[in-house]
Amino acid sequence: MPPFKDEQIIIIAPGSETTVAQLGLPESFTPARIRVRSRMFPAEKEGEWEPFKVRRRDDKNGLPAPPPGDPETRPDDDEVLYEEDRVSEEGAVWPIQQGRIVNWPCFFALVTHVYNTMNPPFHTPILLITQPAWTPREHERLTQFFFEKFKTPAFALMDSALATCWAYGVHTSTIVDVGKDKVDVTAISEFIPHIQGRVIALPDCGGEALTNGLMAKLKYRQFSRDMCEQLKKSPICELLPPGTPLPGTGDANGQDGSANPAALASTGALSSGPEAASALGIAPRGPGADTEVGDEGLEVESEGVLDVASIVAGGKMSEYLARKEKEKQEKAAAKKKGLEAPTAAARPIRLPNSKREKATFMYEDHRLLDVLKGMNLGTKGMGDMHAALDEGPQRSRQEEAEGEPRSAIEANRSADPTSSSRSGPIRREIEVGVERFQAGSSGVLEKIADAIHRAISAVDEVNKRSELWDSLIVCGNGSRLRGFKEALMVTLQTKYLISPSSATIFTSEIPSNISTPAGTGANTPQPQLGPHGGPSQVNPLLLAATTAQNPHLMPPGSNPLMSGMISHNSHSSHGQTPSSIKIVKPPEYFPEWKDVGFDESPFLGAQVAAKVIFVVDQGASKGYMTRPDYNEQGPTAIHDYSL
Amino acid sequence: MNMANATTAPNTNEYAGDEVSAIVLDPGYSTTRAGFAGEDVPKSVCPSFYGQSDSDAGPQYSFGENAIHDPRANLEIRNPWGSDGIVEDWETATKIWEYSITSRLTGARPGNPAKNGLNDAHGDAMDVDMEALESLEKPLEESPLLMTEPGWNPQKAREKYIEIAMEEWGTPAFYLQKTGVLAAFASGKASGIVIDVGAAMTSVTPVLDGMVLKKGVQKSPLAGNFVSNQIRMIFKQAQPEIPLTPHFKVASKTQVDAGAPAQATYKKFDYSPTDSFGRHEEERVLTEFKESVVEVWPGPGRFSNGTNEEIAKSQPGRPFEMPDGWNQVFGVERFRAAEALFDASGALTDPENPRPKDEHTIPRLVQAAIQQVDTDQRPLLLQNIVVTGGSTLLYKFNDRLAYEINAIYPSTRNKLIAPGSAVERKYASWIGGSILASLGTFHQLWISKKEYEEHGVNIVEKRCK
């Protein structure tokens, strides 16, 4: 068995939205180097796929191009040029939906594209992160594909929930993976997932559902799906814990409302620090709620100017531009007016996002860009249009380029090397009200909470459940939304947490261990055990009494005796779970990951696992299948080689 | 049946060349278990309940755990099993079983890459495509199938099983075995008496050398669902009545003192979730109650005997908190819920729930089953009393069962074989099936497609005894 080296190892983690991959394990584990949106475009020839949208282009001599969608106009022209449009997603096929592979040829093309992007040398073992929704038969199919297409010397599959476990370095936990269009909840004890009760691909709960939630709330303002998507990713969108009042209309005082939105950056978007900063950095002149300009801007928007693309397409371009120009000047004037005061004065009265009634975000209008491209204005025309429409200040581009790659989803969209000022996204500023807190209004959190309860209740060993409740891990890019984890915790706590019963304090406990033996002697009293649990070293009622009424007064872990008792000893006074719910702290020793957040922790876990199975133990744990193994036993044997 | 191989895994070289991993399907009232033969737990455990919502376009069915816990307007929760432990609604039963296999074992569209190209144009229209494809492709064309059946399955039902497997799923080979035998196999026994307390039915099956003694098979409806009903009655008859509120109705709960009325905020629905949905969700709470509160009186004697109740009273109670925050300590009541499994007179009754019959209690079932066995075989069976089924996980169930059996048969050496792990107890018959179907001899047992085509459905009566 030739040992593998760190730099040879390939890890691929396909997802519904983004597929991440990396060649080689760095000294200190980093987030994935390669990020590809999980979609391909059908090529001209049926059965072939292209990683980017390919469209016809013809800009020599400024001839009018054939209208899009009518390729037959000039069938004999050899001069037709094709251009790769790296931003447009029109006609894309997404092979993974709700975690399931729905289009295999497309999926294989995607994997091949990812593989080729890495340009790997010959001797590369591959570790593939699998989604819980993939069935064993599909694992076999993947095995076959990888061995036969890439001639890989070794191949391993790893469940994504298990990978998260490895990343956090815990053996028992409940993994809540919030994806694009689904949520998976997996209870894992001692590194073994409980597959029976696993909640796989719970629909309508992922990031997509949150976008839909925003869309439903903002319907009256005719927000497009793309707007909502970007609003969701902007730092002003937040989930408030259930029961938190929305910033009301009545008490919003004008002064505070005008505070510079840039200040928000300092309120610290928990999971998206740098992203927040960079996104806000480009929006330093948001119209305050109390300025004339701001109100007017809002009015204009509510009149339907959100959909600039259709205005442009409808030929009312110049009208719009003129009005916009006027607005711009007004804004500039307003800005000048208050130039001395604002920056210094506004700072002290910062309000956290959750208290602000309105906030603005930068919207990258891809549709507008598409429309413009469709009009084939030529290089110069495009440039002009772009300059006229783009509200995002150019000077922040530098900043953005630095900050952006950290943002998981946006990375390959706007930090694309091709985004010169001409073809880069057109950004516009949009203001939203309290709707931005209502992404979860369709009951997303409750559904996820219920799924967690179901998954843990389905664990057959009752005594393992409380430990599972005490070690929740929420990961997945769907949970990046600010406040998501906190709100989910509050939902779980208000709905499922079992409080110590006040009754147990007053019932007499003493007789339990010394009850009267029956005449036969068969009733010799036993210490009171939980229904299926181990013995309790501490009187459960003592615990109940000390924690009674107000578990919140007892910060978890404040009393080492107590916390130890709860986790090692399956029962407190309740046989019911959960008597406490905790989220596992992410590991401290991955500095690169710490900055980015652990939303893609499966990838981190895969790095750890790859290091172990490919390098450290050199195949002793049978964590991967080698090529000779495959040749001998065929793809079905993959099930014998897994962690 | 050659049991010598049951404990040792077959050597891969022996027949790995053309090994086809069989699928084992063990349908039950509460869950349907499916998985690949040779594995130690079923990979797929799906609820046998399904959702049905009627619309103008006809009834829409939804399967799987995720679909049936989501409160939607006019979503009815149904079950294809009849109250006698035999499938009633074959059409949906087939769909549920198929779902349990395709959703987690084989994938929705097994091995037909040619078909996939058709979907490229409209990748979003997944559901439509799936349905269309399902009618074209048969889900089990590559895998032999072993199914389990209750011991009292009538011939008609058995023929239906093979028909579904062969015609609808296109399996190349099929075999049917009784749950009792398989549960015994799972414990490594070829002979024994199998006590299976499931959700809908309790059954007692005498097994001799891998064969069920058909006339000895006993069944009764006193099982998990019955205990649930008893708990409901405990709640109802309590003073004041204990409200049973399922999780989905509660938005958030507030801690209240024991016995005090709940002060939760409830969720508002713009439609009313159906009763069957509500009941199914209540069942979740009752399951939790069974797991954490209910205790079987361990003996000696019945719960109602002499001072037993007094003794029970002196034992500490167990607290239970409802999803709406209502909580109380259950003292002596918690012994009553399952008492009727052993003693019919201990049952709680009301006009809708009459007193169960004496001969339906577990001791009487065992007695009746043993009665049918030759006297000289009885000691052998009593040495191998295999306990299986999810409801046997009730706290102290085995203590009481041992006491009851020893009381009836004081002179024999009675031994309970009850796997300690909950997984093995719950899925015993599936595990037995997994063992059987991974044996090298399995292909001698099964009915091949060719044989089926030659002889028709009644071959199942001849071959699967």
From TrEMBL, chain A:
<comment type="similarity">
    <text>Belongs to the actin family.</text>
</comment>
<feature type="region of interest" description="Disordered">
    <location>
        <begin position="239"/>
        <end position="294"/>
    </location>
</feature>
<dbReference type="InterPro" id="IPR043129">
    <property type="entry name" value="ATPase_NBD"/>
</dbReference>
<feature type="region of interest" description="Disordered">
    <location>
        <begin position="50"/>
        <end position="77"/>
    </location>
</feature>
<feature type="compositionally biased region" description="Low complexity">
    <location>
        <begin position="262"/>
        <end position="273"/>
    </location>
</feature>
<feature type="compositionally biased region" description="Basic and acidic residues">
    <location>
        <begin position="50"/>
        <end position="61"/>
    </location>
</feature>
<feature type="compositionally biased region" description="Polar residues">
    <location>
        <begin position="516"/>
        <end position="527"/>
    </location>
</feature>
<dbReference type="InterPro" id="IPR004000">
    <property type="entry name" value="Actin"/>
</dbReference>
<feature type="compositionally biased region" description="Basic and acidic residues">
    <location>
        <begin position="327"/>
        <end position="339"/>
    </location>
</feature>
<feature type="region of interest" description="Disordered">
    <location>
        <begin position="327"/>
        <end position="346"/>
    </location>
</feature>
<feature type="region of interest" description="Disordered">
    <location>
        <begin position="382"/>
        <end position="427"/>
    </location>
</feature>
<dbReference type="Pfam" id="PF00022">
    <property type="entry name" value="Actin"/>
</dbReference>
<protein>
    <submittedName>
        <fullName>Actin-domain-containing protein</fullName>
    </submittedName>
</protein>
<feature type="region of interest" description="Disordered">
    <location>
        <begin position="624"/>
        <end position="643"/>
    </location>
</feature>
<feature type="region of interest" description="Disordered">
    <location>
        <begin position="516"/>
        <end position="539"/>
    </location>
</feature>
<feature type="compositionally biased region" description="Basic and acidic residues">
    <location>
        <begin position="387"/>
        <end position="407"/>
    </location>
</feature>
UniProtKB/TrEMBL annotation, chain B:
<feature type="region of interest" description="Disordered">
    <location>
        <begin position="300"/>
        <end position="323"/>
    </location>
</feature>
<dbReference type="InterPro" id="IPR043129">
    <property type="entry name" value="ATPase_NBD"/>
</dbReference>
<comment type="similarity">
    <text>Belongs to the actin family.</text>
</comment>
<dbReference type="InterPro" id="IPR004000">
    <property type="entry name" value="Actin"/>
</dbReference>
<dbReference type="InterPro" id="IPR004001">
    <property type="entry name" value="Actin_CS"/>
</dbReference>
<dbReference type="Pfam" id="PF00022">
    <property type="entry name" value="Actin"/>
</dbReference>
<protein>
    <submittedName>
        <fullName>Actin family</fullName>
    </submittedName>
</protein>
